[in-house]
């Protein structure tokens, strides 16, 4: 699954990522590792009930690649 991950991610394509990337141009692609860091830093603002299956899969792929399978959500 790790090989499938896109190196650049467009926040506007993922509703919750778009919401937590409010301070940047959400149409501009960001590195996958930066997207992972955004999810980790701002998890408390992510409405998990609104996550689409596609976004859940993205988060899991990012966690597998950059977090050794773990998304750190406490903090």
If you had to describe this structure to a student in words, what would you say it looks like?
This protein is mainly α. The protein has one domain. The protein has three helices and two strands; from the N terminus they run βαβαα. The chain has helices at residues 15-20, 32-41, 53-66, and strands at residues 8-9, 30-31. The chain has a two-stranded antiparallel ribbon with strand order 1-2. The longest helix is centred in the C-terminal third of the chain and has 14 residues, at 53-66. The radius of gyration is 11 Å and the shape is globular.
Tell me the series of helices and strands, N- to C-terminal.
Answer: EHEHH
Overall structural class, as computed from helix and strand content, comes to mainly alpha
Strand content: 5-15%
Task: Work out the number of β strands.
Answer: 2
Q: Mean pLDDT, nearest integer?
A: 89
Shape: globular
Spatial gap, N to C terminus? 28 Å
Count of individual helical segments: 3
Key words describing this protein structure:
5% strand, mainly alpha, 75 residues, 3 helices, two-stranded antiparallel sheet
List the helices and strands and how they pair.
Elements: E1 8-9, H1 15-20, E2 30-31, H2 32-41, H3 53-66
Short description, anyone?
With 75 residues, this protein is mostly helical.
């Amino acid at each position: 699954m790790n090989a499938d991950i896109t190196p650049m991610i467009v926040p506007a394509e993922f509703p919750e990522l778009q919401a937590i990337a409010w301070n940047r141009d959400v149409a501009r692609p960001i590195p996958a590792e930066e997207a992972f860091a955004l999810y980790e830093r701002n998890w408390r603002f992510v409405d998990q009930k609104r996550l689409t299956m596609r976004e859940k899969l993205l988060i899991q792929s990012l966690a597998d690649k950059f977090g050794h399978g773990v998304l750190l959500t406490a903090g």
